[in-house]
Design goal:
Keywords: Signal, Transport. This is Probable sugar-binding periplasmic protein. InterPro entries: Bact_solute-bd_prot1, SBP. There is one protein chain. The protein has about 425 residues and is α/β, with parallel strands linked by helices. The chain has 2 domains: about 190 residues, D-Maltodextrin-Binding Protein, domain 2 (3-Layer(aba) Sandwich); about 200 residues, Periplasmic binding protein-like II (D-Maltodextrin-Binding Protein, domain 2), CATH 3.40.190. Helix content is about 55%, strand content about 15%. Strands 1, 2, 3, 6, 11 and 12 form a 6-stranded mixed beta sheet that branches. A 4-stranded mixed beta sheet has the order 8-9-7-10. It has a two-stranded antiparallel sheet with strand order 4-5. Strand 4 and strand 5 form a beta hairpin. The termini are far apart.
Length: about 425
């Protein structure tokens, strides 16, 4: 009797295996090169992965662990040069148009037209994902870089309120130090220091001045007193940081905040996604607010994916994936775990926490409050970005480096970059 029962069972198993093999063979797959490696980011990746699976598209992971995507961009360039480009890649800010100009990105105008992207997306997002009138990228979410996180338990214990000015910040920091608590979790990793500095510069100036320095790279801006004040502020904050921070990852810094080893942290709101992944609830375990004196500004970074123009064999799948990324359901789910906010004009605000609602409402007010992040590739090209970050890092690490010397070095870099750009523009005209 047992033998009679086992035979049909084997047959059913074989049939199931054949069906699974058939489904796997029919499913298209896309390799996605990205740098999302933290717990919160991996939860966001899982959202994308699951949504793709529902559309019978397989996610082939191309994670390149690197802070701020530095290593991932190098890997992407080398793979393209080797003729082994992934189908999809994380590419942010001004790099989108640079890659599009080289003819490396898939133009998805039919997706934009059929999906009515111009009406769905926030204006600045719509502008970012285009190059010369063609849609070349799919947006995922908007991050606010000028965010200050604070440990609610510590602030409650010492009857502290979130600071809105630098004077208030220093008063809080001194009180915390007297209690034996490190006020500010901060790594000395170059891009993390520069992320802190760009928020400080914004607080000491204005969006217009910030863009004079980091977008237009006007030499005079680097000699200005507002830039000098920002450098002084950066050095002042140094005494409130962990002495052992060194070049630790931002995830480790977030853990210091979560564990109560530090009371505050200044970083983009991807930290919120990480803290949530650790089990801390927004407004309960931690709070978030704007960096002092930047409450009216949104220093932004927009996550985007591009489809590489390899051949047309997977074009339909790539376009299907792109369209999927801006669906209201995915936008809500992805940004909820990533810490960012929706790129849509009319998202469901009820699914956002207090930090996200404040971020989206401010960003949606338009260009008058929006400021492009230098560090996260929204403001300028890679060469300029790296040169400025290197000088900010040098100044922070070397207490013998004067503010005036740093200003002179940055001014000289700006003059050189301006001459180089002028020469390149002249060559383009003569071609």
């Amino acid at each position: 009797m047992a033998t009679i029962w086992r035979q049909p069972q084997r047959g059913v198993l074989v049939l199931i295996l054949l069906i699974l093999v058939h489904i796997s063979a029919c499913a298209e797959s896309l390799q996605v090169l990205h740098w999302w490696r933290s717990a919160g980011e991996q939860k966001a990746v899982a959202v994308l992965n699951n949504r793709m699976a529902q559309e019978n598209i397989q996610w082939r992971d191309g994670l390149v662990p690197s802070g701020s995507g530095i290593g991932a961009n190098i890997v992407l360039k080398s793979r393209v040069l080797a003729g082994n480009a992934p189908e999809v890649a994380q590419l942010n800010g001004v790099l989108i148009s640079e890659w599009a100009d080289l003819g490396l990105l898939l133009e998805m105008d039919s997706v934009a037209t059929s999906g009515k992207w111009e009406k769905l997306l926030l204006p600045s997002v719509w502008s970012l994902v285009q190059s010369h009138g063609h849609l070349v990228a799919a947006p995922l979410g908007v991050h606010r870089t000028n965010t200050l996180f604070f440990n609610k338990k510590i602030f409650s214990k010492y009857d502290l309120s979130a600071p809105s000015t630098w004077d208030e910040f220093e008063q809080i920091a001194k009180k915390l130090q007297q209690a034996g608590i490190v006020p500010l979790a901060q790594s000395t990793e170059p891009w993390q220091l520069a992320t802190l500095f760009e928020t400080i510069l914004l607080s000491e100036s204005s969006p217009a001045f910030y863009q004079d320095a980091f977008v237009r790279k006007e030499p005079a801006a680097f000699y200005d007193q507002r830039f000098s004040r920002a450098l002084k502020r950066l050095r002042t904050l140094k005494k409130y940081m962990m002495l052992s921070a060194q070049e630790r990852t931002w995830m480790e810094m977030a853990r210091e905040l979560a564990d109560g080893n530090a009371a505050m942290m200044i970083m983009g709101d991807w930290v919120k996604g990480e803290l949530n992944a650790m089990g801390l609830v927004t407004d309960v375990g931690f709070g978030c607010t704007a960096v002092p004196e930047t409450g009216n500004y949104h220093l932004y970074n927009i996550d985007t994916l591009v489809m590489l123009a390899k051949d047309n064999s997977l074009r339909t799948t790539q376009e299907k994936f792109a369209q999927m990324l801006i669906s209201p359901a995915l936008q809500a789910e992805y940004n909820q775990v990533k810490g960012s906010v929706s790129v849509l004009r009319n998202p469901d605000l009820s699914k956002m926490d207090s930090c996200s609602r404040a971020s989206w409402k401010l960003f949606s007010r338009g260009s008058s409050v929006q400021v492009p992040s230098l560090v996260h590739r929204m403001a300028t090209d890679e060469i300029s970005k790296d040169a400025i970050i290197a000088e900010i890092h040098r100044f922070f690490m070397d207490d013998q480096m004067t503010i005036g010397e740093t200003q002179r070095r940055l001014g000289a870099i700006a003059r050189y970059l301006s001459k180089t750009k002028a020469g390149n523009d002249a060559q383009d005209i003569n071609r």
